[in-house]
Write a structure and sequence with these properties.
By secondary structure, the chain is of the alpha+beta class. The protein has helices at about 1-20, 110-115, 135-140, and strands spanning about 30-35, 45-50, 55-60, 70-75, 85, 90-95, 100, 105-110, 120-125, 130-135. Bound molecules: FE2/S2 (inorganic) cluster (FES).
């Protein structure tokens, strides 16, 4: 009888554990970035992932949907310099070797264009008034390991 009682409590604990701590699907997690209303069209918000990767997040449309925003790595894929957004030219520019990228992150001139190296793009999601970025488990798990 004692064994049956232990088994019953064990089963109940397992069910409660799955309810309280559901399995998290592997892959992308969504991290809060900013209020949608705080981003103005034509300006880029500098942001860092938990692992320290630099990202530029910009509003490219006037609406309130995910398609009205873009998130691109700020690290040039050529040799790793930091690119900056130049709103007057509507482009990302890398000062190290004059690399130029379109507002969508496509390399259009300089060494990155010659090598076909576009800026890395991140997934975004608008949920009501809030903007989230999608990061892989690796990008989150490496946080604190680079300090
Ligand atoms: S590091 Fe950006 S163009 Fe060379």
């Amino acid at each position: 009888m004692g064994g049956a009682l232990v088994a019953a409590y064990g089963s109940a604990a397992a069910v409660a554990g799955r309810y309280l701590f559901p399995a998290r699907p592997a892959g992308k997690r969504w991290i809060y970035v900013a209020q949608v209303a705080s981003l103005q069209r034509g300006h880029a918000l500098p942001w860092r992932t938990p692992s320290g990767e630099r990202v530029s997040i910009a509003r490219v449309g006037d609406g309130q949907s995910t398609d009205d925003f873009i998130a691109l790595s700020s690290t040039c894929p050529h040799l790793g310099c930091q690119v900056r957004y130049e709103s007057q030219h509507a482009r990302f520019f890398c000062p190290c070797h004059n690399g130029v990228f379109s507002p969508e992150g496509k390399a259009v001139s300089g060494p990155p264009a010659e090598a076909g190296q576009d800026l890395v793009r991140y997934a975004l999601r608008v949920d009501g008034p809030l903007l989230y970025i999608g990061l892989s488990e690796r990008q989150i798990a490496s946080a604190g390991q680079e300090a």
